[in-house]
Amino acid sequence: MTGPVVLSFCVTADATERLDRFLADQLSLSRTQAARLVAEGAVVVGGSPARASRLLKRRETVSVTMPASEPPRHLVPAHIPLEIVYEDEHILVINKPAGLVVHPAPGHWDDTLINALIGRGVTLAEASRRPGVEASEAAAMRPGLVHRLDRDTSGLMVVAKTDLAHRRLGHAIAHRRVKRTYAALAWGHLDASPTEIDAPIARHPQDRKRMVIRDDGRAARTDAFVIARFGVCDLLRLELHTGRTHQIRVHLEHIGHPIVGDPVYAGGGSRRIQGIARGLADRIERATPRQALHAAGLAFRHPESGQPMHFRAEWPADLEAALRLAAGPEVVAPQHTLAYLRFYDRDA
Predict the structure, then answer these.
(1) CA 186 to chain centre
(2) Is residue 55 packed enough to be buried (19+ CB in 10 Å), middle (13-18) or exposed (0-12)?
(3) Are residues 170 and 185 in the same domain?
């Protein structure tokens, strides 16, 4: 391992584009790498840490502290049980359990979904990057992935086994031809169904693990439909038009209806509920082991045959107790909760 290296240079152009793009071009970095350096305060202009959106001027001095380099990592197999919903020579569809990280990263190098697939002997697509984005070690840790789920979000994911499938699925997602449907318990009651949430999302300026609504963020839209209205919360069907990090969780907190059990975007959690219903809200919160968010539906055309593919994943067992408390045990049908509540009717 080598130590950090400080690179300094003087701007010779009369003006530049925003700092993160300029750094990516000048230092041959990906946009993600450049943005991370800026967010971590590793880029200093005129003696002060600079913002990603800053426009540089002629003769300004830029100093960049490049982090210590580490030996390249390799994917290692892990024997982790997986629920494979569908598999052929081109793709896999998985019902990911909560608690499973999708791809290797600091803190989880050998216990992720990718490690589990390698452990099953699955060959995954190597084309795990978008055209025009530089290859990197991080990209090599994400073979076959075309979309992701948060660690504590359960549900359906499609993974590409061939480069062709990866390219076509990536193109389909980019052009909104992959339908991803989520089920969630959210505090309170939405005023309208559907509710369109259209608010740009950006990374938090101080906490890189959080996302926030910000005018200079990336466009993001979520449509929320009320499937069932219970005493202190709603069961929602959520349809994504974009796929930003933490999108559903951030959007629901933004409109005042955070997901039950969300430890990061809680918006007050059960404390939002006042009066006699507060006791029930507290019991529901205690019975919810993680954010009550589940990828319940996935639909796309097969990347090789073009055949329409439709998959469903019922409400997960670890969230059943919370839903029963919210709805009442006589309302919820065991093992077929979402179908019983007509969650999938819009798919028809």
Answers:
(1) 18
(2) exposed
(3) no
CA distance 153 to 168: 25
On whether both 214 and 338 belong to a single domain, the answer is: yes
Q: Is 8 exposed, middle or buried (0-12, 13-18, 19+ CB in 10 A)?
A: exposed
Residue 167 CB-density burial (10 A; 0-12 exposed, 13-18 middle, 19+ buried): middle
CATH code: domain of residue 115: 3.30.2350.10
Which pTM does this prediction carry? 0.78
The amino acid at 224: A
Question: Are both 157 and 185 inside the same structural domain?
Answer: no
Residue among 20, 88, 110, 150 flagged as catalytic: 150
Mention every residue, 6+ apart, whose C-beta is less than 8 A from residue 243: 147, 173, 180
Alpha helices of the chain — where are they, by DSSP H?
Answer: 19-26, 31-39, 113-119, 137-140, 163-174, 247-254, 278-286, 320-327, 337-340
Q: Which residue has the tokens 């979309």?
A: 147
CB 50 within 8 A of CB 43: yes
Tens digit of pLDDT at every position of the chain (348 positions): 556 778 887 877 777 778 888 887 777 677 777 888 888 888 998 888 888 888 888 888 888 888 776 555 678 899 999 999 999 999 999 999 999 999 887 778 889 999 999 999 998 998 544 444 444 555 677 889 999 999 999 999 999 999 999 999 999 998 999 999 999 999 999 999 999 999 999 988 878 789 999 998 999 999 999 999 999 999 999 999 998 999 999 999 999 999 999 999 998 888 888 888 899 999 999 999 999 999 999 999 999 999 999 999 999 999 999 999 999 876 766 678 899 899 999 987
CATH number at residue 55: 3.10.290.10
Longest dimension (CA), the chain: 72
Active site residue 191: no
- Domain span at residue 131 reads 84-174
Instruction: Tell me: do 149 and 216 sit in the same domain.
Output: no
